Amino acid sequence: MERVQRSAGVKLSWSSFVKHALLVCLSFVAVFPLYWMIATSLKTEGDVFSSSIIPLHATLQNYTQAWRAVPMFRMLSNSMVVAIVQTLVQLLTSVLAGYAFTRWEFRGSSLIYGLIALTWLVPFQVIMIPNYVAVSGFGWRDNLLGLIVPNLVSAFAVLQLYNAFKSYPKTLIEAARLDGASDWGLLWRTIVPNLKASIASIGILLFITAWNDYFWPLLVTTKLEHSTVQKGLQMFISSDGNMWGALMAATTITSLPVLIIYLLLQRQIIDSFVKGGLK
Amino acid sequence: MSYQAAGTARTASGSKLQSRRRILLRLGYFKPYLYLLPALVSIGFWIYKPLVQTFELSFYQWNLLPTSPKKFVGFDNFQHLFDLPDMGTALWNTVIYTVGVIPFSLLIPLIIAIATDNISKRARNVYRALIFLPMIMAPVAVSSVWRWIMHPTNGILNKLLATIFHPSEPIRFFTDEKWAIWSITFITGWKLIGFSTLIFSAAMTGINREYVEAARIDRASRFQIIWHIILPLLSPTILFMTMMSTLFASEWSFSYINVLTQGGPSNATTNIYYLLWTYGFQTFNIGASSAAAVVFFLGFGVLAFGFMKLTKKLSFFDN
C-alpha cells in the first residue's frame, strides 16, 4: 500500500506542487499580520507609513513610548498573576473532579458530569449582568479577586482531565491500593505524576485562555492600574492618534508571553487544542 | 470439632471485616462528592445561579443601580423584545455573521485538508505550526493588528489594492456601512481558518485507508472517492464544526465588534450578543438585556440539542 502511494506521489508531482502552494498561501495569510505587527513596531516614526516590508532602521523607540504611555508593567504583572493563579486553581479543581468521575461509581455522577459539560452552552453575555452585580457586591471591582474568583473552574479542563484519567490503567490503581495507598495518596503519588504531560499541556491552554481573556476585565475594572494588558491594549487602540508604531509595539508586548510559549511548545499546544475542541 | 471451630472463627472474623468494610463504604459514599465539591460550588455560584438570576431579571425593570428598586413587569420585556431599537438589525447581522464564517470554518478548511492529505511529515509540522498561529492570539491584539493593516489611508491592504485596482478612493473597511460587517466577519474567520483546517486534517488521518484503497482498486475516480467515501467518513467532524461555528460565530465576533466598530457605523455591525452588552452596560436596560438573553439562550440551546441528536445519528460511520 505504501508503495502504491509513493509511486502515485512521484507521478503526481504537479499535485504535490498544488498542495504546497495551497499551504504556503494559507500560512502566509496566517503569519503575515503578525509579521507586520512586529515589523511596524520596529520602524522609526518616519518609516511607519512607508510600505517597506523590512524595518530598515530598526529601533526600539516605539517600545519605550508604549511602555510610558500606559502603566504597562502594572498591567503585565496583573495579567501574569491572574493567568497563573487561575490556571493553577483550575487545574486543581479539575484534577479533583476528574478523579472523582473515574475513581468511583456514585449516584448522580452522570448528572453532575452533564451539569459541568453543559456549561459550554452558556454564553458569557447571558450571565454577565448577575455576575457583575455579585462581584460589585463583594467589593471586588478593580480588584484582582474579582478577575480570578469567577473563573476557578474550567469545564474544558474537567472534561479533558477526565479523559486523561480514564486512559490511566485500572490495574496500576489496583496495585497501588493493594500496597495500602489511600485515595488521596493514590491521586497525588501515583496518578498525577504519571499524567504530568497531559496535565501540563492542559495547563498551557488554560494559561493562554486566561491571558487572552478580555470581556471580564473590561467589565469589572475601570482603572488601568488594576486591569490586565488586554484591557490596556483596548484603551490604547481607542485612544487613537496616529501612533501606529507605538500601538504595534504595545500589541507585540501583550502577545509576547503567549508567542514565546507557542514557540517553545507548539506541538503540544496544537495537539491539545485539536483534541479538545474550542472554548 | 476443631475443624468446625476454626470454621466458625473464620466466619466471625469475616463478618467483622465485612462490617468494617461497610462502614468504610458508607464513608466512601461521600468521597466522590467531596472531590467534586470545589468544581460544583464554583460552577453553581458563577454559572447556574446567574443563569437563574438572568431568567428572574427578565421579568423586571431595572437600571443596574443597587439603590434603585426593581419593578416587576411580568412578560412585558418579552412582549416588547422585538420592537426594541436595533433588534431587527442585530438579528439579521447575526445571520450574516453565522453564514459568513462558514467558508472559513468549514468550506476552505475542508478543501485544503482533503487536497493536502498525505504530505510529508516534516512539512506537515511546519505548516501546522504556521497556520495555527492566529488561534492563540488574543482577540484584542488581533483587532489591533487588523485595524492597522486595514486602515483607510495608511494601511498596507489599501496601499496594495491601490496599486492593483486604482480605485477612486480607499476602502474604509470599518467605517463604511457596506464593508464593516464583512471586515469583522473576515477577521473572525481569519482567526479560525487554520484551526479548522487542522481539525479536518486530523480527521483525515483518522480515516481508515483501506476504504480508499478498495475504492481505488475498483477504479473509482478521485472525485467519487471524495464524494462517496471521504466526505461521509468526515461527516461527524463536519457536523461538529458546523455546530461550533453556528453556535459561536456571534460570540467570537463580539470582541472585534467591541474593539473596532462598537456596533457601528449606524448599527451595521452589531449582533445579538453585542446588543445584550449595549442594553446591559450602555443604556442600562437590564430587563431588556435579560429577556433577550433568555430568548437567545433557549434558541441556541434548542439548536445545540438538534445538532447533538444529528451527531448521534451520524456517528455510526467508521466505527
UniProtKB/TrEMBL annotation, chain B:
Subcellular location: Cell membrane
Any GO BP annotation: transmembrane transport
Predominant cellular place of this UniProt entry's protein: membrane
SUPFAM superfamilies in the cross-refs: MetI-like (SSF161098)
Pfam family, any one: BPD_transp_1
GO cellular component annotations of the record: plasma membrane
Protein name (Swiss-Prot/TrEMBL): Sugar ABC transporter permease
